[in-house]
Structure formats: structure tokens, C-alpha cells
Amino acid sequence: MLRDAVREMQRAACADERARTRRLRARAELTRAEGYAVEVEELLVLGRPAVPDTLMTEIRRFVRRHSRRMARALGAEPAPARLLDVLFDLQERIQERMSAAMAHAA
């Protein structure tokens, strides 16, 4: 009986740790998307017509991990304003997943 109680406590502790890890990862992804959005906003303020290739490649890979549809929607060479729209949509998607995961965990 004591063993069962200890096992149950260990399971609960593991489940809590997994939930905490998921939340931290989601927050990190949200922060990363926000960082990309800030960089693209700066390009818009500076009046740059295009996003540098290295940054664009990095952003594409990040977006593709979350949504292939959004990655395809970027097109070959998206304007910074279009890229910013996709990043905002991606942030919403990440937040929705975070909310659903938190509701599921509770």
C-alpha cells in the first residue's frame, strides 16, 4: 500500500515535470517568434525591400517546424510585411497550443 502511494507520487511528479517542460518549450518558441518579428519590423522601419537570405532561411525553418502550410504561404521571396503577417499568425498558433495544453493539463 505504501509502495502504491509512493509510485503514484512519483508518477504525479513526472507528469508535472513533463508539463513544465512543455510550457517552457512553448514559451521559448513564442519568444523566438517574437524576436524574428522584431527583426523584420526593424527592416520595415529601415525601408529594406527584402529580408536577408540568412535570416529568411532561419525563419523558414522555424515556421516550417510549426506549420508547413504557413511556410508555403511565404512564397519564394516574401516582402517583409508578408513575413511579419505570417510570424504574427504563427505566434497566435503557438499561443493557442499553449492554452490547449494548459487546459488539458488542468
Report, as a whole number of angstroms, the end-to-end distance. Answer: 27 Å
Quickly give the structural class.
mainly alpha
Portion in strands: under 5%
User: What is the residue-mean pLDDT, rounded to a whole number?
Assistant: 88
Q: Count of helical segments?
A: 4
Descriptive report:
- The chain has 106 residues and is mainly alpha-helical.
- It has one domain.
- Helix content is 86%, strand content 0%.
- The protein has helices spanning 2-46, 53-66, 68-73, 80-105.
- Helix 1 (2-46) runs antiparallel to helix 4 (80-105).
- It is elongated.
- The model has no long low-confidence stretch (mean pLDDT 88).
Descriptive terms for the model:
0% strand, mainly alpha, 4 helices, 106 residues, single chain
Describe the SSE topology.
Elements: H1 2-46, H2 53-66, H3 68-73, H4 80-105
Entry summary:
The protein is an all-alpha fold and about 110 residues long.
